[in-house]
Amino acid sequence: MPRKRTLKLRCPICKKPVKSGDAEFPFCSDRCRTIDLGKWASGAYVIPSVEDADEQIREVTPEDSDEES
Ligand SMILES: [Zn+2]
Fold this sequence. Notes:
Elements: E1 8-10, E2 17-19, H1 30-42, H2 47-68
Antiparallel strand pairs: 1-2
Bound molecules: zinc ion.
Zinc ion binds at residues 11, 13-14, 16, 27-29, 32.
């Protein structure tokens, strides 16, 4: 049975709604896909590092408040 479900997603670059059946999915156009490739290449997306920084802040905060009281 053919899968013809259309997921409603947004282009990660310009936030325009994109259908999963579009030729440039998940981007709305070839232009946005090229922009996204450039972001990856230049290191604009560094998701693991962001998570590491968040964990470090949570570990440090309790010690700081303990010293103050
Ligand atoms: Zn776009």
